[in-house]
Amino acid sequence: MSRYLESRTRLSRRVGRNLFLKGPRSFSAKDDVSKRPHRTSKKDGRPARIKLSEYGKQLQEKQAIRYTYGLQERQIANLFKKAFTIPGDTGKTVLTLLERRLDNVVYRAGLANSRAQARQLVNHGQFQVNGKDVNIPSFSVSVGDVVTVKPTKKASEFWKNFQLLIPNESPAWIDNSKSLEIKVINLPLDSDLPQEFKVSQVVEYYSRKVR
After folding, report:
1. Residue 143 in contact with residue 186, Cβ under 8 Å?
2. Domains, the chain, ordered by start
3. DSSP, residue by residue, 23-51
4. Tens digit of pLDDT for each residue in 54-95?
5. How large is the average pLDDT for residues 83-109?
6. How many other C-beta atoms are found inside a 10 Å radius of the C-beta of residue 199?
7. pLDDT digits (tens, 9 = 90+) for 121-150
């Protein structure tokens, strides 16, 4: 599966806000998005003034979610398609499914400095769920699951020297009190879901495409 390998700063500028895709740098004074959050005109280098239609706003919000969680277009479309079949608030269902991704849980628990790093760690076989190896970033955790760094990896230089360099407050639905271990206490409550996305706009966007 192909991955976006170009500037992550450019992705944040496309949606006009900092998506914190560059780990510690995104939270520092050196962050490029904070200095210049918008795309600039090719002619004079000034911020490009683009008036978005309602569809454009929906598309931009969809991209913000996709870039934040590191999804491919097909992945996010399939996620909404699944959410439409589940009773309840579709937007909250989507965000809950996203938060339950293994790479996101690793990031939220403070075992990675970005979701991209968390995704790479999972891909490289650093974690087990309930004692079984899992190397699929989209793996969905359930209540009672215990995520641990593999015993054979704990002595590696990476984990010996790992430092969390970003602000982090572990959500209430996971317990990371034990070193290199995460326990899923319950599923995310409404108050645990990210508030920065206008997910209702994305629901409307996909209601025309995948239902």
Report:
1. yes
2. 8-88+196-207 (1.10.1050.10), 101-187 (3.10.290.10)
3. GGGGGSTT-HHHH--S-B-TTT-SBP--P
4. 999 999 999 999 999 999 999 999 999 999 999 999 999 999
5. 97
6. 23
7. 999 999 999 999 999 999 999 999 999 999
